[in-house]
Amino acid sequence: MISWSRKSFDELNKNELYDLLKLRSEVFVVEQNCVYQDIDNKDKKGSHFFAHDGSDLIAYLRLMELGVFYPNHISIERVVVKQTHRNKKLGNEILVKAIDFCRKKFPKTQIKISAQTHLKAFYNQLGFEFKGEAYLEDGIPHCAMYLGE
Fold it and tell me: How does pLDDT run along the chain (149 residues), one tens digit per residue?
């Protein structure tokens, strides 16, 4: 049975923090073969959305309020689903939960993401629109995408 949670950094217990950093490292560093500084001092300022299957962390994202990354936008980032649980629509589900939270808490604020370019169609089907140009972020092609007010 999948359980969903949202917590501030201060609400995370040490096991939850360890598990989310481990999952991000498994996917973003090891699987994608990308050496970068994942622990960026921003986690303390974010809301953390995650899903567990029993005690196993299987999906995660962090949400940053206005001013943390962008002065006029909320940011959703570090969207990750454990490899063994992909193709189960968990990425959609966790993003819908984060978007719903944003719309309730910040009803007139646009959401901005830095999406890996190969996932543009995935984010499009959730309503995000590509604006601008593609760019490299940590050696991986990305693009700015926005979800309206």
Answer: 899 999 999 999 999 999 999 999 999 999 998 888 899 999 999 999 999 999 999 999 999 999 899 999 999 999 999 999 999 999 999 999 999 999 999 989 999 999 999 999 999 999 999 998 899 998 899 999 999 86
| Second CATH level (architecture) for the domain 2-107 | 3-Layer(aba) Sandwich (3.40)
Q: Distance of alpha carbon 54 from its chain centroid, rounded? A: 21
> Under a CB-based contact definition with an 8 Å cutoff, are residues 133 and 42 in contact?
no
Torsion of CA 114, 83, 20, 39, to 10 degrees: -50
Cβ–Cβ contacts within 10 Å for residue 20, how many? 22
If one counts every other C-beta atom within 10 angstroms of the C-beta of residue 144, the result is 18
Q: Which single residue is written with the structure tokens 């974010």?
A: 46
Give 73's DSSP letter: B
112 and 89 Cβ atoms separated by less than 8 Å: no
